[in-house]
Amino acid sequence: MSGRSVAILGAGAGGIAAAAVLARRGHDVRLYNRTPGRIAGLREAGGVEIEGDLGDGFAAIPTITTDVAEALSGAELALCCVPAYGQRPLAELAAPHLEPGAALVLAPGSAGSLEVAQVLAAHGRDVHDEILLGETVTLPQSARVTPAGRVRIRLDSAIRMAAFPACNNERLYAAVGDLIRWRESPNVLDTGIHNVNFLIHPAPMLLNYAAVERSDGTLSIMNEGMTDGVLRCLDAIDREKMALATALGLEPISIDDLYREAGSGPHIYRERGEPFGDEGTPRGYRDRIWPRYIDEDTPYGTVMLSSLGRQLGVPMPACDAVNTLLSVLERSDFVAGGRTTETLGLAGMSAAEIRHYLFHGGPRARAALRRRV
């Protein structure tokens, strides 16, 4: 399959990498970003310098724009590569311009498709028949911006993808085709709760908070920050997440197996020390206390896990503690402002009712649930 029209919404490292990969495969790619400053250099160059699994060189991107209507005009697939806190605002912008029959995929979703469905419904767009809505567990490619301004791309293994409602899974898989390397997922809470960032970031950042501040951010959280004690906390949250998955009728999968599924492995965080490249120098994977690790992965990750656990009677003491303490340290009430069963439209539902809603979706599912009550 080639020559398809694809909109990439969001020009972070992941969005740029997706645009570069698809453009190199001969697709008509439109890269959109709301703020012009982030894409000014890309527009001037007409693309991006890349390195990694696609080789080194220049990847031309046909259209780079701040006009969401231009990006979505004729697009068969819109791939949303923005942080979780950007999903609702972007959906508000995109909803009037999505082509009937187009697929809108959040990458990663973090269960955000349940909130985006509400936005689309408010704009009169139907996710049962008109728009194919779905999400993935992570980005299609792992990507970093190097100190030289190039984008380093690693092609991941097939990633979990599901539609909301899940009765549209087969239609979504057919629509996406080979644009993304995907594997089947039962529903968007399977993709949502299995985002490994919820495990690998909030608790380790909390337990390394002083060290990161003291060193002005020059700490590799994935290696130097993963001591035995930190890993015990990470594993405790992982056990809570797996108990939650079981309560939801999903397969409980450990973080180690999720990393293996993505083509990597637990050595990434279970082996100490800053990783070195082939040239024998540190790769420079240094981390600061910044939005992606705390301001996103706490309110849209561990807060969501805690909220689901509280509703389903699954104890989440480690998640609860991380949410409380990071709220104190960051002077922000992540619990009050986070992704919860209320924002997801799942409040008051039992596990069986949640599964029913995830499969059927929308007003029809809610009407059926009311009749059952």
Any idea what the radius of gyration is?
Answer: 20 Å
Count of DSSP H/I helices: 17
CATH homology superfamily name of the largest domain: NAD(P)-binding Rossmann-like Domain
**Could you say what the CATH topology of the largest domain is called?**
Rossmann fold
Question: Could you report the average pLDDT, rounded to the nearest whole number?
Answer: 91
What best-fitting shape do the alpha-carbon axes yield? globular
Give a brief rundown of this model:
This protein has 373 residues and is of the alpha/beta class.
Offer a few descriptive terms:
373 residues; alpha/beta; Rossmann fold; N-(1-d-carboxylethyl)-l-norvaline Dehydrogenase, domain 2; 8-stranded mixed sheet; 4-stranded mixed sheet; 17 helices; 12 strands; 14% strand; globular; disordered C terminus
